[in-house]
Design goal:
The structure is a single chain. By secondary structure, this protein is mainly alpha-helical. The protein has one domain. It contains five helices and no strands. Helix 1 crosses helix 2 and helix 1 packs across helix 3. The longest helix is centred in the middle third of the chain and has 22 residues. It is globular, with a radius of gyration of 16 Å. The relative contact order is 0.14.
């Protein structure tokens, strides 16, 4: 079996954005700013490390931080973006309601 290359933190984050229906161009814009963000100082020098070299909680914190940063970026650059719910928590809340069978009457209006 041919080995699958392990993504770096940078690749993992970009792939996360694209999986959330963001265009590659927008994902590149977000990542360019995200890796330079003051809140990401602890990642300095680690963006090109294989993500599997770190425990899962570190990956989760990175994803959480990326979602918060991305939501802010969307609000400033394209507040009507169709992919906004994938990052601002709306999609998560809807999924929880659907899974709990607590679908509000006005959800699909």
């Amino acid at each position: 079996m041919v080995g699958i290359e392990t993504p770096t933190f940078r690749e993992f984050c970009k792939n996360f954005l694209i999986a959330g229906m963001m265009s590659e161009q927008d994902a590149n814009s977000v990542m360019e700013l995200f890796v330079q963000d003051e809140g990401q100082k602890s990642m300095l020098g680690k963006w090109d490390d294989p993500i599997t070299g770190y425990p899962r909680p570190i990956q989760n914190v990175c994803t959480w931080s990326l979602k918060r940063f991305t939501t802010k970026w969307i609000e400033e650059n394209c507040p009507q973006a169709f992919y906004k719910p994938m990052f601002d928590g709306t999609a998560d809340k809807m999924a929880e309601q659907i899974n709990a069978h607590e679908i509000p009457d006005d959800m699909f209006k």
